[in-house]
Design brief:
heterodimer, A: five-stranded antiparallel beta sheet, about 60% strand, B: about 110 residues, globular
């Protein structure tokens, strides 16, 4: 079945710098790749997603890139701000059996003022 | 007008007790999920229902029994609670394999 690996597990950057989180997946048939942000004590919320027919998608300071050949996708956050501090999860759709999302292990991002 | 709601938000109970968590969504989605998030923040799917039918059961102990009375509701009953069941349980809903909307979570503490 689908397996998603996410790196790094923790990331600390200076305010204003960029942050990059990377994920790899195993199922070449996966076609949907969302990213979720979870603030402390809150629910995971979708921040951006990408489908397999697109290589890159951008929404203001966040962007996601997808390399289907290498089976990896990345989240890029530019001009980081303190409110970007959270745990970020990548996920990939599984094509095996009932459809579901398989989540990465999460990255705890800390923005230092 | 909350999209996905869960009750209760906190649940503190003794080992061996039985407890239930309720979830409701008003998004008109056909698919609902239960996830367990442990202390390391890992999000693991437990169950999924599509239009009241169980479609995913991820090797969860038999002490956990989901029930979906209609496609807008998905409840989780846990028998004989154990220390290892302590976690945050999230309900979610989606239409097909698409954006999943999560509930606020239920923090279960087993003493």
């Amino acid at each position: 079945g689908e397996n998603v690996e996410q790196h790094p597990s923790t990331l600390s950057v200076q305010e204003g710098d960029s942050a990059v989180i990377k994920c790899t997946y195993s199922d070449s048939a996966s076609n949907y790749f969302p990213w979720y942000k979870q603030e402390l004590g809150k629910r995971p919320q979708l921040i951006i997603d990408i489908r397999s027919n697109v290589g890159e998608k951008k929404d203001q300071r966040i962007a996601v890139t997808l390399n289907k050949t290498a089976k990896h996708f990345s989240l890029h956050i530019t001009e980081t701000q303190p409110e970007d501090s959270a745990v970020y999860f990548c996920a990939a759709s599984s094509s095996e059996g009932a459809q579901k999302l398989v989540f990465g292990q999460g990255t705890r991002l800390t923005i230092n003022p | 007008d909350t999209a996905v709601s869960q009750t209760p938000k906190y649940l503190v109970t003794q080992m061996g007790n039985d407890k239930s968590i309720k979830c409701e969504q008003n998004l008109g989605h056909d698919t609902m999920y239960w996830y367990k998030q442990d202390s390391k923040k890992f999000l693991k799917i437990m169950f999924s229902y599509n239009n009241k039918e169980l479609i995913i059961n991820e090797t969860v102990p038999n002490r956990f029994s989901p029930k979906s009375p209609d496609k807008a509701h998905l409840n989780l009953h846990i028998n004989s609670l154990e220390l290892g069941d302590s976690a945050v349980y999230f309900c979610a809903s989606s239409q097909y394999v698409d954006t999943q909307y999560f509930g606020p979570g239920t923090r279960l503490t087993v003493l």
